[in-house]
Specification:
The protein has two helices and ten strands, in the order E-E-E-E-H-E-H-E-E-E-E-E. Strand 8 and strand 9 form a beta hairpin. The radius of gyration is 16 Å and the shape is globular. It has a domain of 112 residues: Mannose-Binding Protein A, Chain A. The strands form three sheets. Strands 3-4-10-5 form a four-stranded antiparallel β-sheet. Strands 7-6-8-9 form a four-stranded antiparallel β-sheet, with no helix packed on it. With 167 residues, it is mainly beta.
Length: 167
C-alpha cells in the first residue's frame, strides 16, 4: 500500500509498487512536495544506512567544485535533504562539518543534482549569509553557506528515490 506523506497523496498503487502522481495539489502552496519516497536499498560496505538512504563521509578532503565528482567516484551523489528529518538523520553518520550538494545560482541556493531550491528551514540562523557552496555545520545542526576555497570532507548519498518515477 502507498503511504501519504504529511496528508499529501503523492503516490498511487500500480501493480505492486507505488508511483508518483504529477498532480500534487494541496502538497504545499507551490504544488511541490519536498519529501522523497524510497524503496529498500542495500548499502555497500563502508556506507551507513539511515532510513532508506545510504551515506558515506569521504576520507579525502575536497574543494567545493569537486564534491559531485568525488561522490560519483564512490558510486553516489553529493547529499541533498528534502526535510529536516533527513538532514537530522545524516548528522548521526558524520564526524565533522562536511560539504553537501548545493550552489548559489542567480541569488538562490539550489541542490546540485535535482536543481530544486534548498528549503529555508534547513539553514542555521542567519544563513545563508554569503558563499557559493553548502556545508552541514555539525555542531549547529543545519546548513551553512561558505566560500568554495575550504578544503573538507564530503557527504555522499545513494538513494532509490521513487518520487521521480512517472506514470
Amino acid at each position: 500500500m502507498c503511504r501519504s506523506i504529511h496528508g499529501c497523496d503523492m503516490f498511487k498503487m500500480t501493480g505492486n509498487r507505488c508511483i508518483f502522481h504529477r498532480n500534487n495539489a494541496g502538497c504545499d502552496e507551490i504544488g511541490n512536495h519536498n519529501t522523497r519516497m524510497f524503496k529498500k536499498l542495500t548499502c555497500p560496505a563502508s556506507w551507513s544506512p539511515m532510513n532508506e538512504i545510504c551515506y558515506l563521509q569521504t576520507k579525502q578532503k575536497e574543494y567545493c567544485a569537486n564534491i559531485q565528482n568525488t561522490c560519483l567516484s564512490h558510486g553516489g551523489n553529493a547529499a541533498e535533504f528534502y526535510s529536516k528529518e533527513e538532514m537530522t538523520n545524516s548528522l548521526t553518520v558524520i564526524t565533522s562539518n562536511v560539504y553537501v550538494s548545493g550552489r548559489l545560482q542567480g541569488g538562490v541556493y539550489l541542490w546540485n543534482v535535482t536543481g530544486q531550491q534548498i528549503d529555508t528551514s534547513l539553514w542555521i540562523p542567519n544563513e545563508p549569509a554569503e558563499g557559493d557552496c553548502v556545508q552541514i555545520w555539525k555542531a549547529n545542526k543545519g546548513l551553512d553557506a561558505l566560500s568554495g576555497f575550504h578544503f573538507m570532507t564530503v557527504l555522499c548519498e545513494q538513494v532509490n528515490d521513487l518520487s521521480n518515477v512517472k506514470q
